[in-house]
TrEMBL record:
This is Protein-lysine N-methyltransferase SAY87_011469. The keyword RNA-binding does not apply. One of its GO terms (molecular function) is protein-lysine N-methyltransferase activity. Residues 1-29 are annotated as: Disordered.
Amino acid sequence: MAGLRLTPEDSELPQANRPAVASSDLISDDDRSIAADSWSIKSEYGSTLDDDQRHADAQDAADAFLSSGNFRTAASDYSSDKEEPDSDGVGSLLGLQSYWDAAYADELANFREHGHAGEVWFGGDVMETLVSWTKNLCIELSQGHLPTDLNDIKIDPEGDKFLPAWSVLDLGTGNGLLLHELAKHGFSDLTGVDYSEGAIDLARGLANRDGFPNIKFLVDDVLETKLDQQFKLVMDKGTLDAIGLHPDGTVKRIMYWDSVSKLLAPGGLLVITSCNSTKDELVQEVDDYNQRGAGSFLEGEVPKDPEAARNPIFRYVNHVRTYPTFTFGGSTGSRVATVAFLHN
């Protein structure tokens, strides 16, 4: 289950333990259950997936790897097959591409047979808030404003005219429903990428069925992207969470920031929505990356560019403060955090 999401004022408090499994136990019944429950914030419409089949497919992939004895020996060997768990690493099935290939094969079959769209990760209410908030933030930036507080973001009824100029990239797009919602709000230059071919097949099918044929969907891995285009707005709803659940999640998250820094145009906006990190944790991760400088992979390494600390790559802009909260153990927090960063 996702840990307690804390408000900015309480973010220094400890989080609940997150799901994590050692690769040596990767295929146990308990681990399959943990993988299914790791992201508990799913669609308000419920799952259309056959979880037993999904876990069986993920288990087959893990069995094949474990029987090969071909374990990795160092987390820094990040160029190896992304599906190979580190023998000493900690992670989750949700961090493996095989899990998502199986999941989207199932969702694609359900779509073709029953017309089901699949899951809305974090729920429809969160997606609606996220898109409306992002739209208003983009309009403010288009008008030369840099709103650093919720009250600075204003609703401009004439603002839709700015949105076609915002080229949008959705990382780990899945079924592409986030891009549908962005299109409904006035964005028109929309691209979704996912490393699972099944996800892209599903996203294309849904877009054509629901009247969004102009949305582009491409098979691409953000960690090894083949895209040669820069985008003005990059959206991430849960992808960084999944990357962090890989056995080599620490290294791969740094690779993620290197890749996003190339995909996001100067002056562009990155909007991350997470259920595994608080706002302050995301800001700290970005600060750490800025301190290291692009291309550095070791924690504490001196930046190659001495100016990196004075000229950060990413700058915090704003975050959503309107998600529903709950109180547990005397602490109040939200299950989801959405944070926006500007590419300098």
